Amino acid sequence: MTKIEKPDVLVIGSGPAGGAVARTCAAEGKQVVVADYQPFGGTCPLRGCEPKKFLFDVTNVALRRMHMKERGLRGCLSIDWKKMMTGMAAMRDPIPKLVEEFYESHGITGVHGKAQFLTPDTVVINRIQYQPEKIVIAAGAKSRPVHFQGHELLTTTDEFFEMQELPSRIVFIGGGFIAFELSHVAAIAGAQVDVVLRSERFLRRFDASLVDCMIEASRDMGVRFHTMLPPNTLTREGDDLVLCAGEDNIEFRADCVVLAAGRIAHVEDLNPEKGGLELNQKGGIKVNEYMQSTSNPRVYAAGDVVGNSMELTPVASMEGMVVSHNILHGNEETPDYSVVPFTLFTHPPLSTVGMREEEAQAQNIPYKVFEGSSSGWSEYRRIGELYPSYKVLVSKKDDTMLGATVNGHNSEEIINIFAFAMRTNTTVAELTKWLWAYPSFGYTIRYMFK
Fold first, then answer.
1. Are residues 389 and 377 located together in one domain of the fold?
2. With the CA atoms of 211, 213, 218 and 219 taken in that order, what torsion angle do they form, in degrees rounded to the nearest 10?
3. Ramachandran bin of 128, using left for φ above 0, alpha for ψ from -120 to 50, beta for the remaining angles
4. pLDDT by residue (tens digit) across 176-211?
5. Mean pLDDT across 346-355
6. What is the mean pLDDT of residues 252-262?
7. What is the pLDDT at residue 450?
8. Which of 72, 159, 244, 308 lies 20 to 30 Å (CA to CA) from residue 38?
9. Which domain holds residue 254?
10. Which of the listed residues 208, 229, 261 is the one where a domain comes to its end?
């Protein structure tokens, strides 16, 4: 006879979204099972945000040293790639065990294995059938597949984080977050780096003019950018990988070609048809305002698997908390996407919150713009940063901020201040009265409105 388990809540995925659901529901006395076919913890701490930020912090010190050599610093500073990757692994590798121990200590059952729907109310994992009261899909996202000739020779971003030696020549295919962040790490560490994009515009979620400033900084560190070049073939010729791209079959020779062309909701392996799950236009689980499946009321979904273009750890955690509340108390809570700051951890980091100018124009919102270069400000001159810049959109109606983008050192903290001001409907007049520690990067907000 097939074994059948009937927990209160089955969570598919152990990342920030699934973890929020599991711990909150378990704290309220629910019997919770968490299933994941990969090590517990999810993409962010194991294959994304945290290891990436470790590499950013190390390479940032090396780049800052280069910028400061005209300011009195002596001696050489270079990246020991193997030691850096070993240090990153030492931070990352204990996480799955710690997550598993947390589950055990809080009465949560952790299951290692792939989850697949048999029916709308039954999920099978390791040949055991689960018929929970509620099913939460928090399976995250996976690399967007490509199908050109030779794609099997590509290196995944997961594999990049395992490299014990830095290839001399690397090509990144893609023009989003991961392509830019890893290309900067590789270039500062000493690799020859090319970024190849199939379309014309990089980083569409950021203001185009500030992306241009960041690209100039990237070129200074040796990163080369190529647009309108969809990949055609990837072949091996001796020790070289040869990528041919675009109408003219432009050739790139490399030791490693990394696929960084974005991610899609990790849905297909779940057998969504058997689960009675309707998918949205982006291929994620289609949900209503309460994060509940539109076609299977037993199911909720949170995080990247929803495919809502907000693939961010804080968003996934917030959605997980919304799902938890609605499971425990009925459909009352809805996610709030009104103010979501995020950062591209390049060198320098590029951060944004709220509207881009093109969005304000499309919605016919009256606004004024404060923008410019920050390179002449003492905060950036001290550290030798050449391309810092900013752009702030302010409502003409009530003097509150509609959006902001900041390119430069510590922009991730500056954008948090803007996000706070937006969430509290603080006007520019009020914001410029606030006192800040001086001389700090937060203080630069005062300069932006002069």
1. yes
2. 120
3. beta
4. 999 999 999 999 999 999 999 999 999 999 999 999
5. 96
6. 95
7. 84
8. 308
9. 151-261
10. 261
